[in-house]
């Protein structure tokens, strides 16, 4: 079947495989799905004829109003997801104190991130089966029950394994040293069985799953490992800033929840601006490696500088450090995803994107958990010093798992005692920043593995067509064949 027939009928039925595998319902919002039984066969090139009329391009037939409505809808969905992730962070100390929850500060955030990280691969596979648009609408509205053939196509064993393994591993890290000792049977069993279940998930995806949630062929190209590794360390560092800077503002500087949100604006605004600018750069040049390298350099510098934050408000440091960190964070929200998608077949784009999201959510969960463990253990070490200055009862409220929920106690103390408590918070957070900085060094290794083969794009007159010139063919890449001429849109 030639390239024209492969793309000409977007609403045609998907052919049944010879081994009577359950058919995957057609996704009318994306390109035609390949037969699942031929997943290992090379993907033929999708070639745009030189004489193709501009009207065959969806962008050419779409009005400006339609494009604006589509972009507003998509941006609203992303805004809802971002708001859901970040809106609670500035009020966490107050919420934890209100409910008298010792471990509430970490649990409120990690509970959401745990569920988010564990379910992301399944949602990506659902969108691959039923289509991006229906799943997007249903995720914002009601629960969707698919047809029986679609339900049979879901990798239930893989979904259960990745959810169970992720939850057990992160719960083990969450409990360790706070709720239970690190050497307790509960913590050891959770971590060990979480790792074992993760290996079972990989084995299932590799050998047994008919329609895997995370196809192992995504990892055929070494650049994909580097892209996912870059995504992991980026998410790990980014969430630490948005999660623990409000704690610094409230516990050390004595800010209110509202003001701590205002103090976080330099980070939020700078990363938003640079993220948009990097997208424009990639669109204009077709190059994604420069934004990745640029972002990693500034992210390393910016979050490293947070170690130097003072126990008293130094606004020059607070603003400049956040701006530098935001400049580093912004470019790497999407650039590593483009690097990943550049080396996967079109039929695997949904799986690759959901894997990318899973890695990012997993890294943010681990970052919050590790940051909480380090901070709480450091506060526990200062129990003797706090007891001598504040008394045993007050010191117990500020140590260990109670620390994050006791910001109100700090601000209510007399001036001399308040300074002792704020110094303890400052030193504990400083240690946490140092640990995050040390672990963040892993991105220096992963980013060097990103492939140097980048798309060189140019607009041709007479229609919107893109010429992709690559230094070498990528196995399973999005482009195949000698011409490498694809239609953009």
UniProtKB/TrEMBL annotation:
Segments of skewed composition (Basic and acidic residues): 450-473
GO MF entry, a single one: transmembrane transporter activity
Biased segments, Low complexity type: 27-41
Region (Disordered): 1-60, 447-489
This protein's UniProt keywords: Membrane, Transmembrane, Transmembrane helix
Subcellular location: Membrane
Pfam families referenced in this protein's UniProt entry, alphabetically: MFS_1
Membrane spanning stretches: 68-92, 135-151, 157-175, 182-203, 223-246, 258-282, 288-307, 319-338
Main localization of the protein described in the UniProt heading: membrane
Keyword Transmembrane helix: yes
Topology of the protein relative to the lipid bilayer: Multi-pass membrane protein
GO cellular component: plasma membrane
InterPro entries: MFS, MFS_trans_sf
Family: Belongs to the major facilitator superfamily. TCR/Tet family.
Protein name: Putative Uncharacterized transporter C3H1.06c
Organism: Glarea lozoyensis (strain ATCC 74030 / MF5533)
């Amino acid at each position: 079947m030639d390239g024209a027939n492969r793309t000409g009928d977007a609403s045609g039925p998907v052919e049944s495989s010879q081994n009577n595998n359950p058919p995957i319902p057609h996704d009318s919002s994306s390109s035609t799905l390949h037969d699942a039984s031929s997943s290992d066969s090379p993907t033929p090139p999708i070639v745009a004829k030189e004489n193709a009329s501009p009207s065959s391009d969806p962008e050419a037939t779409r009005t400006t109003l339609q494009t604006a409505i589509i972009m507003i809808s998509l941006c609203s969905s992303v805004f809802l997801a971002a708001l859901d992730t970040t809106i609670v962070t500035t009020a966490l100390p107050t919420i934890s104190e209100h409910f008298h929850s010792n471990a509430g500060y970490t649990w409120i955030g990690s509970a959401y991130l745990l569920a988010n990280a564990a379910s992301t691969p399944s949602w990506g596979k659902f969108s691959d089966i039923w289509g991006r648009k229906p799943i997007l609408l249903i995720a914002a509205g009601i629960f969707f029950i698919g047809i029986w053939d679609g339900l049979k196509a879901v990798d239930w064993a893989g979904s259960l394994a990745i959810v169970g393994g992720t939850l057990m591993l992160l719960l083990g890290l969450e409990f360790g040293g706070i709720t239970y000792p690190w050497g307790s049977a509960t913590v050891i069993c959770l971590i060990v069985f979480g790792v074992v279940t993760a290996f079972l998930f990989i084995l299932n995806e590799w050998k047994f799953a008919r329609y895997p949630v995370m196809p192992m062929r995504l990892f055929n190209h070494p650049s994909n490992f580097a892209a996912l590794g870059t995504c992991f360390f980026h998410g790990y560092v980014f969430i630490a800033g948005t999660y623990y800077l409000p704690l610094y503002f409230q516990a050390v500087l004595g800010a209110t929840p509202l003001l701590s949100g205002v103090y976080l604006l330099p980070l939020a605004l700078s990363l938003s601006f640079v993220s948009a600018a990097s997208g424009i750069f990639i669109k204009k040049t077709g190059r994604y490696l420069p934004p990745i390298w640029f972002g990693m350099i500034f992210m390393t510098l910016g979050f490293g500088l947070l170690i130097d934050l003072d126990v008293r408000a130094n606004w020059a440091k607070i603003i400049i450090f956040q701006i530098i960190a935001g400049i580093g964070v912004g470019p790497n929200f999407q650039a590593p995803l483009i690097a990943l998608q550049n080396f996967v077949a079109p039929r695997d784009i949904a799986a690759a994107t959901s894997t990318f999201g899973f890695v990012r959510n997993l890294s943010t969960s681990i970052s919050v958990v590790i940051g909480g463990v380090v901070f709480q253990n450091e506060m526990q070490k200062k129990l003797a010093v706090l007891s001598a200055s504040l008394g045993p009862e007050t010191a117990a409220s500020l140590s260990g798992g109670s620390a994050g929920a006791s910001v109100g106690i700090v601000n209510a103390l007399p001036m001399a005692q308040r300074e002792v408590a704020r110094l303890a918070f400052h030193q504990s957070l400083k240690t946490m920043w140092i640990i995050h900085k040390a672990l963040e060094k892993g991105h220096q290794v992963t980013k060097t593995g990103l492939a140097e083969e980048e798309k060189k794009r140019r607009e041709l007159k007479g229609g919107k067509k893109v010429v992709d010139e690559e230094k070498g063919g990528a196995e399973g890449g999005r482009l195949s064949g000698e011409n490498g001429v694809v239609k953009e849109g």
